[in-house]
Amino acid sequence: MKVFINKNIPEAGILLLQEKGINITVNPTENVLSRNEFIKICQENDVLLNVGANNLDEDFFQQCPNLKGIALFSVGFDAVNIPSANKRKIPVGNTPDVLSRATSDIAFLLMQSVARKSFYSHKKIINGKWESFNALENLGQELYGKTLGIFGLGRIGFEMAQKCKAAFGMNIIYHNRSHNENAEKELDAKYVDFETLLSKSDVLSVHSNYSEENNELFNKNAFAKMKSNAIFINTARGKFHNEDDLFYALTNNVIWGAGLDVTNPEPMKKDNPLLSLSNCCILPHIGSATYEARNAMAVCAAQNIIALFENKKMPFCVNEEVYL
Ligand SMILES: NC(=O)C1=CN([C@@H]2O[C@H](COP(=O)(O)OP(=O)(O)OC[C@H]3O[C@@H](n4cnc5c(N)ncnc54)[C@H](OP(=O)(O)O)[C@@H]3O)[C@@H](O)[C@H]2O)C=CC1
Ligand SMILES: O=C(O)C(=O)CO
Predict the structure, then answer these.
(1) Residue list, ligand 2 pocket, CB within 6 Å
(2) pTM of the entire structure?
(3) Average per-residue pLDDT in the chain?
(4) ipTM
């Protein structure tokens, strides 16, 4: 079985695959492959270990009829057309849980960074604008006892809610398609409809899986229903928000601030107007970027491939229906 890894991953995963004698090819160039180059190499392999946001759509599956499995180096699987994989009985593996702490840490970091204007204040020093102490300048807001609203309270959302409750005694409300009974029991999280999530959250943090039907759900209409002191945090996928509408909301006192680890599109251009705002903190999609999380992700991805190699079910599979 031949495995193609389109960008290098931590050694922990490579070693596991090598120990099993699995034939792997890691993209030898530092460059991102063009779509044609990527497809050509996938055609020559049985399994793809995919790092980054390649679009694994129906066209991809049609062009790569030999593929027997996909191991994603991510928990999110929005870039894969799952019905196309299912049609061909191709299992798709992901890396759940191991990155929940790291990603929720970034959501928490952004929340505080926005509340205390920290990125902007740092830029002020760099730009020679640190002047004498002024009682009315650089004022942020405290989060104690405020309401955290989570859109998509699953693994990462739970970790975020737990931290916010422990650190600031925040009240938790959330909106999912179904109830998260564990969060209701452990964190006293209250299920609300989407409109209530918008109108009652002091901090609204997005942690849902992305799918087309939620494209730019956080747009002008949604921001208009939020509190004027609200902080919007998105560490899930950039396509959840409309960036022009977010800019409008941030510059017209519709909402108070925003923290983004994901942008729409990615990568963000360096002259994006959001980068110049005092009330917006942006990071370049580093949610899972810790040694601990990335090593563990590499192990999960390798375990998924090893299972395929041994004719077993992938231990972390997003389309278990292919095994029925
Ligand atoms: N910034 C980064 O580096 C990272 C980003 N991510 C992103 O975070 C996402 C979440 O990961 P994780 O917590 O592990 O996933 P989970 O599946 O554990 O949680 C996702 C939650 O979203 C809810 N949800 C899904 N669809 C909808 C919807 N249409 N409306 C409302 N709620 C919805 C689900 O509940 P229900 O089914 O009941 O609706 C579920 O509780 C990933 O898919 C990925 O996009 C992940 C890791 C790193
Ligand atoms: O896992 C994911 O979905 C990411 O976005 C990166 O870790």
Answers:
(1) 74-76, 99, 287-288
(2) 0.98
(3) 97
(4) 0.99
